[in-house]
Amino acid sequence: MPFYGAWPFSFAWTRPSGWWYSEKVGDHPEKMSMSEKHKHAGRSRVEQALRDSEARYRSLVNQSSDGIYILEPKTGVVLEANAQFLKMLGYTKEEVTHLTLRDVVAVHDDEVRTSIRRVLREGEDVIGLRQYRCKDGSLLDVEISASLVSYGDKQVVMVNVRDVTERRRVERALRESEDRYRTFFETTGCATIIIDEDMTVSLANGEFERLSGFDKAEIEGRGNWMDFIAPEDKARLAEYHHLRRSDSQAAPRNYEFKFIDRSGNVRPIFMTIALIPGTKRSVASLLDITERKRMEEALRESERRYRTLFEESRDAIYLNRLDGRFVDVNQSMLDLLGYTKEEMLRLKASDLYVDASRREGYRREIEENGFVREYEIQLRKKDGSEIDCLVTSTFWRAHDGAVLGYNGIIHDITERKLAEEALRRAKDELELKVGERTAELQDANERLLRELDRRKRIEEMLSKAAERYKNLFENSPIGIYRTNPEGRILMANPTIVRMLGYDSLNEMIAAGEGGDYVPTYLNADVRERVRHEERVRNLVSAWRRHDGTTIFVRENAKAIRGDDGSVLFFEGTVEDITERQNAEERILSYQEKLRSLAAELSMTEERERRRIATLLHDNIGQILAVSKIKLGVLQELGVDAGLGGSLVELRSLIEQAIQYTRSLTFELSPPILYELGLEPALEWLGEQVQGQHGVRCSFRTDNRPKPLNEELRVFLFTAVRELLVNVVKHAQATHAVVTIQRHDDRVVIMVEDSGVGFDSSRMDFQAGHSGGFGLFSIRERLHHLGGDVMIESTMGSGTRVVLTVPVKEEVAAREAG
What we know:
The protein is of the alpha+beta class. It contains 27 helices and 25 strands.
């Protein structure tokens, strides 16, 4: 414990003995000899130095932040005290001289006497913590040290008193806080540990004991944190540990890893960890998530089984919203109606109904009962044919029970309806004939025999219908195959045999093993993709047939697995799309020609605009200007009052015509574009938009050369003008920015606004939707010119349109030369 107030000198509280001598002799200085005078002068200087020293040290004592008092050791009487001591205990200077040590110290007399004897024996002592009694009776926590000093001609004890009440309060609060946090540490439901900088586990609670299987004595101060981590996670968690101490924000606070307990069991753990403020130690909470992982895996398995059931069902299954728009359909639904999945997802249920009233009846019944069972409807297939169906459906609900739409199963009963209709007609005819010929039994018997024969034919027809379903595999217009995991063909229908140009399946199998033809299922890369992705849809490939010719096919394939997860075989369907592929290539060729024609038409239109603008400016504009000048000359020559007013009015009308002519010239083909170039024209265009529509329009350029031919300059100016018109009409913006820059061999123009924006993900680029020289035209022209357009917009955050065009090679070559 530190020693407060121990003085390194013997302190006297009164003047030194002998001070009276100088005063006595000093009354008669003329009687002193020279030597006596020198002695007297030296003694006076010493006395003055002692008085100055006493004053300094008395000032230091009174100004001390510690309480100091003088104690008579034999009687225990307080002789004198400084101002801080009086303030601590609440006494006045007069009151303190009547106190004894018993009045001040709240301890037994034996302890007080022992302390005084130790001070008298050793000269000083650090007594330590005590409680002093204040004037009002309250107790004060103090820290005491004492030393033996001279007080006049006797030895007294000087006691230093330091108030430690606040420090003791803080210490008690810290102990209480530590007890609370230790209780929380031990009683929390999570396994919790404290990890030192060297990865030693310095503290662990009971939950960590149960999790790890070790006792605290085996863990705390001995166990290394890395010993509990699986080998594959050690490097990652060690990196987090060191990274957290260099930058506490760089390492994640929450992550998963594999934990190894005493028995070697490995279990998944979710950990939350952070540094203890002001230290290099971290506190970590560990949560065993084994059960959660098991439930997640069970959920994924359940979803996989449902998806397999959905996709492989022979029944047509659908899922649609309340408005009837389809969300999902299985392959049987597509086969039933003849649509592709993309086409189905663009349709509504009402688009398929032959009789719209049956759709309304279906909705009423499901809203009343919560389900529909075998509700009869008629649907129209993609090819226009109609089929009779039975639909069974229920509500599709969210987790909270809210109705999102409908899900159901559709059965095709067209063949059954035909059979039932035939039976109904036969029954009607039979009853009619029996009623009319009751009296003629023979005739009735003959008719009955004929009817039985008719029913037999109907039964044969039904049997043939069943046979047709059974032979669907063989008669399907789509090729169907199955291979082993190595790609060897196991089964194929006649369609795929004919598709590859063979007469029989055995011939095709033998040729495939010899490498005579190349279908996709023999490709190891494709099989590996199916093995990993479980299913591949709409894979377009080129197959080499037996005769060496090539066909284009669209293939769907999937992997069939056993209980152990291994691939048993691959199954797939193949559709010959050679004609469609050729048609698409022809269409793309036609589209490219149309783009070229559109580009030429646009340039022809611009040249005509420029020619008309030139005619307006050079002919009509000049004529109007000359007319205005001549009218001015007539007006200056002086005419009568009536004619003068008409001249003024006529000159005003010609002035208006000149202004309209100039405005029309700039709207048709602004001369500034051809005379000064693209950048001045864009800056002028922004000024026009700001002046005419009040939308503040800024122009920015990097001032780098932008060598563009006339076609590109005209197109870019027209495109930016169209985009600014859209800003004025639709964006509700107050500010727009047009920026033009050059990046290597490309010129980039950005048009940004501060408007309401829109959902760019739902933007339709189809021609005609935007009207005129709209976004569709801009995109098509840019693609034709080798450029691109990018649109970024969200609701409430404005819009940015970026146009990128290449610098023409011949222009760039001239610039480089």
